[in-house]
Every structure is written in C-alpha cells, then in structure tokens.
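Please fill in the sequence for the structure shown.

STRUCTURE ENCODING:
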C-alpha cells in the first residue's frame, strides 16, 4: 500500500498493485483496474517513486525471510525475518 493525499489534505492508502494508470492533466489522477479514480495532490513522479519504494521494500524483506523451517501444525513454512547479523 502507498500513502497518498487528496486535494483536501486527507491522507489515504491505495493498493499499488491495483493501479492501472497515473495521469497528470495537470492534476494527478490515479485510475485503478476497476475504473475507480482518485485525484491526488502528489505529482506523477512522486507517485511513481512511492510505488518503486513500496515494491523495493517488499523485495528487501522477502530476501531476508527464513523459510527453511516448517510449522509442524500446518506444514507451511515458518516465516520470520532474519537480521543481517544472524545470517553471518
């Protein structure tokens, strides 16, 4: 989820995976895959950077997940974040 600001100043979160397109006309309009539109205060470049940072964070956390242990109750991996010091 990325945090954006409506023109009235209120903040909200949007699932960036559901964004179909971002237009600057000159106001920035976010269109979701279901056709929902949001008019936001951030410019196009800021929205793009928010999406990039969000996805980079997901990848960074995923690379530090320990999936080597399996939970005996359900057979699924016992996920936990591994600190960099712990890996050494």
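FILLED IN BY: designer on duty
SEQUENCE:
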């Amino acid at each position: 989820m990325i945090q954006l600001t409506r023109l009235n100043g209120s903040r909200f979160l949007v699932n960036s995976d559901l964004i179909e397109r971002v237009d600057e006309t000159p106001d920035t309009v976010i269109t979701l895959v279901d056709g929902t539109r949001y008019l936001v205060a951030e410019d196009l470049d800021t929205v793009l950077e928010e999406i990039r940072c969000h996805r980079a964070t997901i990848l960074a956390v995923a690379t530090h997940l320990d999936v080597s242990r399996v939970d005996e109750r359900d057979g699924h991996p016992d996920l936990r974040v591994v600190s960099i010091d712990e890996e050494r």
